[in-house]
Amino acid sequence: MPHPSTECRDHALRSVLPWLPQDLADELICLPSSIREGMEEIRLRAERPLEVSGSESLLLKKVTRAHLLHVVQAITGSSLYAVEADLRRGYITLPGGHRVGLAGRVSQSALAQIETMTQIGSCNIRLARAVPDFSRRLAPILLKPYGRGIRSALIVGPPRSGKTTLLRDLARTLGNGTFDRRLARLRVAIVDERSEIAACHEGVPQFDVGVSTDVLDAAPKIAGMSMMLRSMSPDVIITDEIGDAGDAAAVADVARAGVTFIGSVHGGSLADVRIRHLLTDLRASGAVERFVLIGRSGRDFAVQNVYDETLREVTGWASPTSSGWEAPQSLLRQP
To answer: pTM, whole model, 2 decimals?
Structure first.
């Protein structure tokens, strides 16, 4: 019997099946195509049902400790030591940009810092997908008047809201010159610390991130943004999950260099981001011109609110038409 990955037409699911035990992979392949194509997460918990979620949430056959051990050995190369840096962050990124979150018993240093993880009891495989033209509805929000460029932006959203998918497609459309007919192709630099935006393998992005896009893979964000500024002369720098004052300072350096920054941050609202003082730092530097709050609407993402650099709400930013999402003319004349 061929490995089930050869029988599955969905690329995202097909690429993670080889990491799973054969019987669990068979279980997923037997699901209806509508569920497979809408699948976002595969959760394995020892001695509990296999759980899949996405367009639907289902509990399937029981996951044994042997199943979980198989997955852990496969994704770590049978060496937890070799992936200790990843374990300290709580996840491992697979080829293709899929992230495997892990939970188990942690070992701490004398300074109460996590050193590694053992006795892993559950894992969550988050499938990375490319969604073409996912980003074009942001044109009314990010496009400067008369197509004179794009505004810097921070995408704010909770987990699974589509932040990384949105950044990936922004890189593609900006780097291909297809973001908006009024905007020329731009030089894009991706600082892909977690190897999830472009999913590079041997230096080649596994996702389409644009013909004019350069990727710095697995580099720390702060050092990576500085490197790309010096070496690649980008028009736009894109990175994922800005989190602290050091990241905010690096974003300010990008803005001072005259380069547009687009990034993301976890949060269900601006208040969630404000708690970490990230908003204060970014507002003080003027490095971010639009704060875009997104959330889920079924299988799609939805823009919930947009704020300018002073945190005033921006209104009238989208008007859905039969030909797509177009900006009202009044908005296109805004400074």
So the answer is: 0.80
